[in-house]
Amino acid sequence: APKKPLVFATRKLPDVIETRLMELFDARLNVDDRSLTKADLIEAVKTADVLVPTVTDRIDAAVLAQAGPNLRLIANFGAGVDHIDLATARQRGITVTNTPDVLTEDTADMTMALILAVPRRLTEGERLVRAGRWEGWSPTFMLGRRIWGKRLGIVGMGRIGQAVARRAKGFGLAVHYHNRKRLHPDLEQELDATYWESLDQMLARMDVISVHCPHTPATYHLLSARRLKLLQPHAYVVNTARGEVVDEAALTRMLQKREIAGAGLDVFEHEPAVNPKLLEMDNVVLLPHLGSATLEGRIDMGEKVLINIKTHIDGHNPPDRVLASML
Ligand code: 8YV
Predict the structure, then answer these.
(1) ipTM score above 0.85
(2) Among 31, 80, 218, 301, which residue has the fewest nearby CB atoms (within 10 Å)?
């Protein structure tokens, strides 16, 4: 029998996916789910035919320089590929795939959870009850801010941004968006979304800003200190995309000075590290990168990885190939 391709998964994956990987390939799994060091990654790319990394693995030029001749595919478990040096992979003839679509709706749900949780003081109220500090109701007790009827500005109107727009409309928010490219008029109309060519102008007019663009060299600190200053003091910032898109230090300073009203953050610039000043604030909701973290979603993501590996090995173009030029 021909030798099965060696597929190296860097992290523990859902059981059904690991079973399938073992049936189809010579699978090297990380049953203890320990986070791999750079040395571990280099060891893996030396011999693997296929690498299945996640967001916690930095596949940079130094790692790729050590890749053996067999490594032809990096089948990322996740949509975002900012941890992979796409240009170097391409130079070395290594195909990169990701897992789009299947996590769109879950991430949009989590975004809505944050859009509601911060202005309505959900986790703050919950902490108060748990701490036994709830002394009774009164008409002016713990008032949040109304969400319906307010303006939501979506930064990055791709699949996830659009899924958020659909939900937001149902919650009575007026949807605005900034994107490099304006949507097709039919889609724009369907989403009932107002386009802003100028991000700066949109930021100055919104009540809630939600980030949905990928992290690329062009979007690093897209919400810079200067741009954050354009926000109104009653505005909220939500980020379920990548921490690097927002200048976290500048955002933290503005929250401290109450120059904006609050923030809902699922992602951070230096995960799993979180700026300790954020931990002291009541007007922020902080989540440990849970946007796509549903059991169903993780299985769907694993199935996408399997399809990408299989089609590539069978000599076809994998469905979810990523090129730097697409980002
Ligand atoms: C995952 C994500 O948790 O897909 C992404 O880009 O951030 C999340 O869905 C993670 O990337 C898995 O590698």
Answers:
(1) yes
(2) 31
